[in-house]
């Protein structure tokens, strides 16, 4: 399975104290021998293991893959990376469709807060 190595990669990053902040299908690479590699560490930050990171910068984020706490409070952690991995899993099963097409940042925040995410 492709998914299990990604879980292992996130566990390893957590042990190193790294929050990726851009887990998405576009950042999972598959080699010729079917080894999965996680890429694009441009938004990654280093934190104490199990800690959270509060972003103070206005950096564009992949909001459709972001966890509720990341969207509402700019808080990132291993847990928010795991949320993004869940969205990535949905991407795999939908054959790389865009999650929540035509949903704006504000609409997604409202839907997550009111728990109406599945009403597209």
Q: State the end-to-end CA separation.
A: 29 Å
Q: What is the N-to-C order of secondary-structure elements (H for helix, E for strand)?
A: HEEEEEHEHH
Largest sheet: 2 strands, antiparallel
In what range is the share of β-strand residues? Answer: 5-15%
- Which structural category fits the helices and strands? alpha+beta
Shape: globular
Tally of helical segments: 4
What is the oligomeric state here? single chain
Mean residue pLDDT: 89
Give unreliable regions as ranges: none
Number of strands: 6
Q: State the helical fraction.
A: 25-40%
- Could you tell me the radius of gyration in angstroms? 14 Å
Structure, described:
By secondary structure, the protein is α+β, with helices and mostly antiparallel strands. Helix content is 38%, strand content 12%. The protein has helices at 3-16, 68-73, 78-93, 105-114, and strands at residues 18-19, 28-30, 36-38, 45-46, 53-54, 75-76. The strands form 3 sheets. It has a two-stranded antiparallel ribbon. A two-stranded antiparallel ribbon has the order 2-3. Strands 5-6 form a two-stranded antiparallel sheet. A hairpin with a 5-residue loop joins strand 2 and strand 3. Helix 1 (3-16) runs antiparallel to helix 3. The longest helix is centred in the last third of the chain and has 16 residues, at 78-93.
Characteristics of this structure?
single chain, 120 residues, alpha+beta, two-stranded antiparallel sheet, two-stranded antiparallel ribbon, 4 helices, 38% helix
Q: How does the SSE layout of this entry go?
A:
Blueprint: H1 3-16, E1 18-19, E2 28-30, E3 36-38, E4 45-46, E5 53-54, H2 68-73, E6 75-76, H3 78-93, H4 105-114
Antiparallel strand pairs: 1-4, 2-3, 5-6
Helix pairs in contact: 1-3
